[in-house]
Amino acid sequence: MTQIRCVRFQCAIAGHPTPWSTWDKEGIIVTPTARIAVKEVDDLRFLEIDEVTFDDAGLYRITLENDYGRIEATARLDVIGRSRYSRSPSARSVRASSSRRNAHIHRRIMGPSTAIGGRMALATGYRGSSVPSCKFYHNGYELEEDDERVQIVVNEREALLCIDNVTEADEGLYTCILQGEHEPLLSSTWVQFQSTEDEALAARLREPRISRSLPTQLQAYERDTVDLCLELECAEPYSYTWTRNGELLPDDEDFNQIDHGNGILCLRINDAFDLDTGEYACEVRTAAGLTCSTACQLNITDAEEERLSALAQHECQPTLLKSPLPLLTTVGAAEVAFCARVYPPEANVQWFVGGREIVEENEDEASEHESFDDDDDDEDNDGAVIKGNGNPSVYL
Predict the structure, then answer these.
(1) Residues 113, 55 share a domain
(2) How far apart are alpha carbons 106 and 199 in whole angstroms?
């Protein structure tokens, strides 16, 4: 473990008057030593620990305070002896992560085709460290439970809305909002009922189809973040599994399984190793048992010398100091803006929406953008302007 490079906690701050900051570990103030440094550069605050040992593991907190208030943020440092492949210790063996695992929706709100007069069940699957509060909305109006028709059930993995004896008035846009010790999680779907039970059954028996498969071959370098993405056409509830060489992959910090909610499924491999080489496959299965699948051969190789040289110019790999915040706006708004803060400032930045990269609109000649259809609602990124590449703050 003595070969590990410096571990750095970073925090971007703002406030007027400028707040003062303190770092602590498990409630004990961190004081600078020959191994531990506390730095301030403009609006950035750093805590750096050299020659990390097992005793450095724990919950770290930065507290900001001025005459008008106080705020704090925490992160946990875990120190482990080996990587997930039981290789010799490396920089990967030290991981700083949030003190609570980020909650996320892994299955967007969906339900089986329903006939008029039947029972509608809409479910949203999520993962997180606690059971959140849940609200369902129909065409913008919050739904309340009653003993006759509407039931809302929330457990550790799923939020469920059931409505009995549905009518045409129950058609429309349904939205589920989950909120707890995290930013609100939102998922929506458009519901239209079938006229008869036979039509509903026929809809449930339609086979899912993969409209954009995984690439047949993909080459990547060690320490890259690799995204394997596919696009699915399926109006019925589905589940999906990712495998590598036939073995099921977990949904964890190393392998993030992402459902963007618009038919795009993604497996994100963080900090790839050469032993991540193999055949990756995704199988989608509907509630009726119908399946489809796609596979990709991923090859991970050692980084090229120029890539290592480029990384050596910085003390750390590119990282987000500030993430874009959730934004609520109205349809047809003249403009919306997102901001992120990156380090180092010269890092290349790409913006994505729903798994698709946003292409900047040329001022002189309008470029063609791919539009994507989600339940007959057309969206595109026409008019997107990206600013700030090469600067600490970047804007969309």
Answers:
(1) no
(2) 29
